[in-house]
Amino acid sequence: DGRSDRSAECARDELCAQADAEHGDAAFAGGRQERLVESELVAGYEVELDTGRDGYPVRLLADFVRNTKAASDFDTGMWFEVEYGGSRAVGSYTLGYTYGRIEQDAVLSPFMFSDIPGTNLQLHMPNFTYVVAPNLTFDLTLHITKRLDADPSANRNWLSRPHVAAIVRF
Asked: What is the pTM of this model?
């Protein structure tokens, strides 16, 4: 169902999961969402566009967070996604791209998506998902990250890490 799909997509984002719990599906029904969560100003927008091809919508998502009580000026995070497809039926697929820029004090690092090394980074993340069989999905994601604020002697080059997965559903 749509709610479980949305919850899975939000697993990387504690704030999104909290919004699901507080506001239910209506908070993500294709509209703007804005709230103050303790010391963080959060604004988000998600929309799904019909492409005329059944099962292949275009989904756009934008999130913004600002930690109003941060100890430094590195207090802002942005997250943008564009996705085409639905990868639900055998032979279907999803193509996606994510851009993120998360400054050091924008959010608590433990609540970041597990494949992304915390905060203080810029991210480009293309992904491809293909449904091989009714309960088997192939997933390919490339995480391309770079530290935003680093010691001059630290490596500030882009780091590329591929993630390949076969996902079996029971």
From this structure: 0.72
